[in-house]
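Work Package 3 (structural annotation) set out to generate three-dimensional models for the target panel prioritized at the project kickoff. During this period the team completed the workflow that converts sequence records into discrete structure tokens, so that structures can be stored uniformly alongside our sequence database. As a representative example, we reproduce one entry of 326 residues exactly as it appears in the project archive.
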Amino acid sequence: MSVPRHHTVQVPATTANLGPGFDAFGLAIDLYLTVRTVPPDGQSERVRTVGGVGCGSLATDDSNLVWRAFVAFCEYHDVEVPDVAMVAHCEVPLERGLGSSSAAIVAGLSLARALTGVRIGDRELVTQASVLEGHPDNVAPALLGGLVACAVDDDGNVIVRRVNPAPHLRPVALVPTASMATTAARAVLPDMLPRAAVAEQAARAGHVLAALSGTWPMAVEVAGDRLHEPSRLAVMGPSAEVVTALRTAGVHAWLSGAGPSVLAAVPAVGGRSDASDGLIADIARTHDFVLHARRFDLAGALVCPDDGCGLAGNGGCVQCPRGRLS
């Protein structure tokens, strides 16, 4: 086996659904999972963690999701699994609706593509990630960055369209201390919706997608949906209170993915969130949520070889993800 050219990947957190875009809309935000391949010599763990809020409970053996996705890519493309270990730093809170699983899957697939030299494009990688994760709305923005809309065509192919979010908006995440597994959040979803609710859902989705892309102003009155939020918020009391408080205050907010985190999109002045940050911070403190005022990630998964740079093509880039692992 040849000695692999080691790489580092940086993958953003994501927020999915965005209110009425159930399993269809997603956004990337600048909290990151960073993973580097290293020689296996002298490292007892398959994936060694080096800090970060999301690393404490990550598996370090072959069951680690980054490693499983790495191996799955190699098996799917019938190539030998490179003889490597990994080092990871995770800023993405686990089981909070911020795409930690999708980030892990995209990290593993991206590293496998880089190390094996298998020549496939991002569209095929999104499709493979969707098979592993179950849905494209988190994996697509994790790979591509920005704002995405996903659908499946009549032949079963995943169709993804990506745009930059409106430049005058900034994301604010309100994250509770308690986690909730996605499987539990999916168990409370209704099996059917009345026809009127389906029509309203589609109308709201169009308004929200266009507002987040900057086509027209936000309309907080149609930020919520009729499919997943009512049933989920009914069993997530603190999250429901946060969503209600934000929307009552005129803030465009939604339950992030399957929850329990809440995301808001707020106007920005000079690159930072405007004065509504004070109001949002008060709501977060009142309900014991941690506030993260962030930016949208536009780059998606960034993969850099040890002897080069995924952006500049050489070493010394100020955005090099390897700095997160030092």
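Residues 206 and 270 are 28 Å apart (CA to CA).
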